[in-house]
């Protein structure tokens, strides 16, 4: 399953240097790419890779065009990483296209569900009463779309996604296996040492072009809806609490937890394992480093971090022990400064 | 689907101020509630909300009765948040009652399973040999109840819950989609640089009135059982290791991990993303802040925290670098104090 | 279902002290073991347990043989914990053997799938085109094995595992319920404030004797494969990003997140809730403490930790506030040292 380099340029643009007949049998990382494989160099500062790679074809930025053309075939384009992303899509469509849509006879489809044209439904999927599936929607094996949910056109639910009642997904969404959208938010009123359940009467509304990773959970709202904006990308095993709002084109890496009613702006990123507490706001363009804990609202865009630096265990133990006395150390330091001042020894910045 | 305010008071009590005919079409947050919606004010210190809300009806504590009645209809009660929780349940029962129980013909039910009256079983559910389902139990689509498990009366398993062999769930439990109860605990003996599996011969026993969030996992015990007490509430994506014990009415937010053989007391709370290490104990009434790591037993009730404060990245980098020298800083401080003492300059607290 | 102690020794070896007819009805923790139960004492330093336990039989190391034999029946062996692991396996095989293999008529099996001998497939499982299941493979209810995946001999997939297209699992693997192998890795190119999907063209390759806990996710590679070595043990709710490599016999506890392209050596351990950032390497034999965040490559074996010590909340607040000024404290300390030096007061280590 090889394609000539020229076919790629015909489909995706860019300037071809070298023979359009150069065969491309695989997309590969530049470090391991072989003679009939294509790799990319994202930026001019990685120019050194051009000399060492064995890749038969390269995708390079204009600044590296001469260096790349000097060694073999290449495609010159403004943004090689973006080009590569589009190439990956083209490649999949060429080699591994979606199978022809069919409705598996083993699916359970309520007669009151409305199915668009070209809908694909896998074995043992369950489509509830009043569900609306847009044109070209694909529902994986064992997926459950509960009553009155709506799935926008060309969205795809992987195997055993649960998409809850009255929830809405926009167009071109991708939900990976095990995603749960619309389980109850975590709401209880304390009473006599026990908890009284607050029924979660809201739903989840998800915009267009959203991708949600495996086993990620997005809870339905208590009263209003939980809202995920257009273009949001969520990795695996993420927890989104009830009434959270995530602004458009924000992205979160695996294992993030966002507590209830947090509002995350547009074009934010949240690193893996970070925790965002509830009832706070992140401005647009806030970037949270992996494993950081957001305990307060952040009003200014920028990068924010809060992680205990890892160390060998013996050193960590010493520093951690000192940390528990840090406030006392600070007081001792102040006393010294005062004593030196009294003794007329200056310890101030000159 | 509107209800008159008087019907709410008839059902749930409280003192009505204003017209019992006031229409209520939705429960709403106070900030966005409209003229035919009802909201609550939990405490007197939120009195200011009464003046600004557009809510047609309010639920308020006695201290706010006059202020609320002065602007429109209201229900006066001792604990508005609790009242609101009960109202949410009543509202759901009115507008969205559970459908009539039925056994889907596409479910796989072992002839040796025992089903109480009024049991509901969804499509493609699997009920194993020797399973006992109490009266009014509801089993969602694709849920799997393995051999000899017991589900107490009126408990509800969401779609694709897996409830393991010989495990027990009490009455009125709610298990959300993707919950796994009774997978093997993580136990291996090291041998020659590899791991030898320890079969997990215990089960999981869960009390009454327990709610478990989507994709949460509770492992079976190695020898004895893992035990979850009455009234415990677990949010989504929580991991409970083998032989953990969770005391009654404790609650944990999303993404918490509790390692094997930890014993958590009654009426504890564990914030989202916190980690509790194995083989330790938390007393009753211990509250762990979100994302904290419990590395030792805690014998006294109270609030406990251990989180690196988030900061803008540049400041964090400087402080984190200093943190790795903290113990050295402490030693330098001590040397200064000794030097000052030798020089007869007092740096002690006066 | 009792077994004589002699039968255990016949099957598993060790030196029997006392009557081979001593009945054993259960394996039990030493603290709660009763007269017809067997428990183990792992090491000589736990000798005190021998005097207090009510266990009818004990498994002990040679150093404790006399003490144990003096109180009742025992098995003497070099490694009681390992012996106990093997006993747990023998016990399960005796009391709770795997049921006879059968192919459930409610499974959906593509005619182009290849099934070895003695394969067991549960109800509603889905086996795709070109799948290869080795001899003795067991596929749980609702498990989905996608096109062209290969499952090695005697491997077992629990209920509703999703095992992705073209992915490979070795022999004797155990995948617990809800595992997702082969969902897309999290890869996007930024473009005009949005994200362009990078199709994930690699797969996941998993070695022999691997165990994977409930709801854990292992993403497929972007170009090359994600690789899990022989003998690796992963607990529940773990996220393994695309193109991660995990060396043989490494083990990770629950809730760990490993970001894309991280390379973890052989015989490493990663404690629960730890986060390993992407594109870094851990040498063989690196041990990461629970909840630590690995932000850099680690080249030397050893134990590494980075956790904020938990404290009562009031003390934590003071120390956390001081921590945000730590770098400034360090500068103040330096100024004091300089001032003392100028005043000819020595604060250096004598």
Question: Could you describe the 3D structure shown?
Answer:
- 3 copies of one chain form a homotrimer.
- With 350 residues, chain A is α/β, with parallel strands linked by helices.
- Chain A has 3 domains: 3-95, Udp-n-acetylmuramoylalanyl-d-glutamate--2,6- Diaminopimelate Ligase, Chain: A, domain 1, CATH 3.40.1390; 108-304, Hexapeptide repeat proteins (UDP N-Acetylglucosamine Acyltransferase, domain 1, 3 Solenoid), CATH 2.160.10; 313-342, no CATH class.
- Chain A is 18% helix and 28% strand.
- The first copy, chain A, has 6 helices and 39 strands.
- In chain A, β6 (57-60), α3 and β7 (73-76) form a beta-alpha-beta unit.
- Chains in contact: A-B, A-C, B-C.
- The interface between B and C is large, with 77 and 77 residues.
Summarize the structure.
3 copies of one chain form a homotrimer. By secondary structure, chain A is of the alpha/beta class.
């Amino acid at each position: 399953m090889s394609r000539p380099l020229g076919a790629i340029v015909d489909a995706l643009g860019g300037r071809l240097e070298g023979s359009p007949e150069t065969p491309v049998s695989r997309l590969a990382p530049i470090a391991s790419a072989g003679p009939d494989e294509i790799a990319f160099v994202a930026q001019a500062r990685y120019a050194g890779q051009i000399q060492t790679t064995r890749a038969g074809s390269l995708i390079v930025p204009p600044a590296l065009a001469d260096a790349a053309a000097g060694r073999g075939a290449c495609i010159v384009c403004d943004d090689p990483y973006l080009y590569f992303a589009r190439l990956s899509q083209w490649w999949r469509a060429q080699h591994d296209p979606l199978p022809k849509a069919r409705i598996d006879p083993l699916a359970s489809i309520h007669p009151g569900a409305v199915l668009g044209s070209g809908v694909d439904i896998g074995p043992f999927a369950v489509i509830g009463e009043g569900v609306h599936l847009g044109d070209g929607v694909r529902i994986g094996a064992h997926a459950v779309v509960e009553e009155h949910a709506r799935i926008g056109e060309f969205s795809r639910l992987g195997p055993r996604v649960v998409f809850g009642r009255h929830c809405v997904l926009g167009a071109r969404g991708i939900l990976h296996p095990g995603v749960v959208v619309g389980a109850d938010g975590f709401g209880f009123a304390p009473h006599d040492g026990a908890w009284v359940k607050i029924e979660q009467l809201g739903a989840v509304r998800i915009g267009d072009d959203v991708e949600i990773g495996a086993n990620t959970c997005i809870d339905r709202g208590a009263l209003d809806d939980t809202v995920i904006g257009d273009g949001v990308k969520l990795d695996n095993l993420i927890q989104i609490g009830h009434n959270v709002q995530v602004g458009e084109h924000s992205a979160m890496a695996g294992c993030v937890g966002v507590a209830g009613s947090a509002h995350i702006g547009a074009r934010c990123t949240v690193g893996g394992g970070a925790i965002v507490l509830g009832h706070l706001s992140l401005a647009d363009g806030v970037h949270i480093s992996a494993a950081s804990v957001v305990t307060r609202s952040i009003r200014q865009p920028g990068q924010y971090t809060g992680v205990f630096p890892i160390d060998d265990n013996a050193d960590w133990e010493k520093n951690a022990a000192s940390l528990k006395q840090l406030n006392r150390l600070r007081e001792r330091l102040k006393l010294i400064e005062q004593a030196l001042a009294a003794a007329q020894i200056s310890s101030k910045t000159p």
